[in-house]
């Protein structure tokens, strides 16, 4: 088994943590998009296109395969500490 191999359950927990971190890191892009869509209906499609792209690009930058692989490696190198309490992630996932 590879050194950075993880169980499916462990991988799912790491993915969840990765997504939560991405949401935190993209808070400003989300806020800009949500401000743009507030009070709009059909015009959202063209009026907020750039804000939506910026938010999507930010989220994609923080939730890609390379990020997941890096987090798996960090986690296994740290001895697979518990990640059940996502409000207090292991120190191996301290902000980069």
Automatic annotation (TrEMBL):
Coiled-coil parts of chain: none
Pfam families: Cmc1
InterPro entries, per database record: Cyt_c_biogenesis_Cmc1-like (IPR013892)
A cellular-component GO term for this protein: mitochondrion
Lipoprotein among keywords: no
Source species, domain of life: Eukaryota
Segments for region (Disordered): 76-96
Keywords attached to this entry: Disulfide bond, Mitochondrion
Keyword set includes Glycosyltransferase: no
Subcellular location: Mitochondrion
Bias type Basic and acidic residues, positions: 82-96
PANTHER family per record: COX ASSEMBLY MITOCHONDRIAL PROTEIN, COX ASSEMBLY MITOCHONDRIAL PROTEIN HOMOLOG
Recorded family membership: Belongs to the CMC family.
Name this protein carries in UniProt: COX assembly mitochondrial protein
Species name: Ostreococcus tauri (Marine green alga)
């Amino acid at each position: 088994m590879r050194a950075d191999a993880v169980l499916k359950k462990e991988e799912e927990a790491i993915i969840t943590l990765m997504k939560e971190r991405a949401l935190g890191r993209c808070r400003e892009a989300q806020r800009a998009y949500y401000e743009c869509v507030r009070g709009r209906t059909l015009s959202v499609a063209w009026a907020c296109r750039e804000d939506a792209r910026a938010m999507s690009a930010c989220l994609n930058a923080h939730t890609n395969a390379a990020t997941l692989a890096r987090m798996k490696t960090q986690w296994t190198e740290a001895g697979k500490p518990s990640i059940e309490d996502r409000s207090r992630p292991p120190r191996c996932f301290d902000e980069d």
